[in-house]
Amino acid sequence: MTARSVLKVLESRPVTEGAGVRLRRAFGHGETEQLDPFLMLDHFRSSHPRDYEAGFPFHPHRGIETVTYVLSGRMEHQDSLGNRGSIGPGDVQWMTAGSGILHQEMPRVTSEGLHGFQLWVNLPRAKKMMPPRYRDVRSADILSVGLGPGAIGRVIAGRLGDRSGPVKDLVVEVGLFEAELEAGARIAVPAPGGHSAFVYVFEGEGLIGGGGTRVGPRSTAVMGAGGMVELEAGKEGCRCLMAHGAPLNEPIAWGGPIVMNTKQELDEAFEELRLGTFIRPR
Ligand code: CO
């Protein structure tokens, strides 16, 4: 399998989201042409309650999936499906908004602060209006896999070595892994040909791809075509999220938390929000 090279490196940038959460956007609107089906990746990390305590009060989603992965701290959630609970260190919430969901995500103030991610995966035209679905994955169900000397991975979705992630029956075929490498450790992770792929380095530095492009902390390597994604950790070691996904190749009409195929579908969604008919009866 050929090693993918790095098409481009996207630096994350500070943004304020929700009711005033200061986080870093790894990538988002206008940057995802080569990342289809991925739409957005946010990285929140702070030990100062003022940066995150305002949280993300009730807001709608339609046409996408939101994947929340907490590394430390705790996030309380509640939604229009009647789900209510919290996710803590190592847990994942895989939420398929489909035809529509209203939810809130409120961080709990803890001594360790809050550290985690939210990834948005687009849904194809045929599934945008599917019944919403919600999956809570506990840390204990996310298996670790050795990736070679000094390197370990966690498999959230897809296959890595002989391990499969606990999130199954995905609408869009996606692999999502976390990897932690000691200084100088090297890994090669398969990403099926034809899939889009990225590596978000959130700690340390990595030399990524066939050409060994240096990717610093809080930056995304957008990978070109090929089979494997190769990564060698810099002298501080490296922690990253790695993902691959089957592209949808469909038009995108993006209105904040709602992502459809056409402007008309977006207008309908916002009209339904005004009329109170956004949430479909089950
Ligand atoms: Co949300």
Summarize the structure.
The chain is mainly β and 282 residues long.
Account of the 3D structure:
Helix content is 6%, strand content 54%. It is mainly beta and 282 residues long. It has a single domain (6-275), classed as Jelly Rolls, CATH 2.60.120. A hairpin with a 2-residue loop joins strand 23 and strand 24. It is globular and about 55 Å long. The N and C termini lie far apart (46 Å). The model has no long low-confidence stretch (mean pLDDT 95). Cobalt (II) ion is lined by residues 56, 59, 61, 66, 103, 105.
Task: Indicate the structural class.
Answer: mainly beta
**Relative strand content:** over 45%
Give the ligands present: cobalt (II) ion
CATH architectural category:
Sandwich
Instruction: Catalogue the unreliable spans.
Output: none
Q: Tell me about the biggest sheet?
A: 9 strands, antiparallel
Q: What is the first-to-last residue Cα distance?
A: 46 Å
User: What is the C-level CATH assignment?
Assistant: Mainly Beta
How would you summarize the topology of this molecule?
Elements: E1 6-11, E2 13-17, E3 21-27, E4 38-46, H1 49-52, E5 56-61, E6 64-72, E7 74-79, E8 84-87, E9 92-96, E10 101-108, E11 114-122, E12 133-137, E13 144-148, E14 151-157, E15 159-160, E16 163-164, E17 174-181, E18 186-190, E19 196-208, E20 213-215, E21 219-223, E22 228-245, E23 253-255, E24 258-260, H2 263-275
Antiparallel strand pairs: 1-21, 2-3, 3-4, 4-11, 5-10, 6-9, 6-11, 7-8, 7-10, 9-12, 13-14, 14-17, 15-16, 17-22, 18-22, 19-20, 19-21, 19-22, 23-24
This protein binds cobalt (II) ion.
Cobalt (II) ion binds next to strand 5 and strand 10.
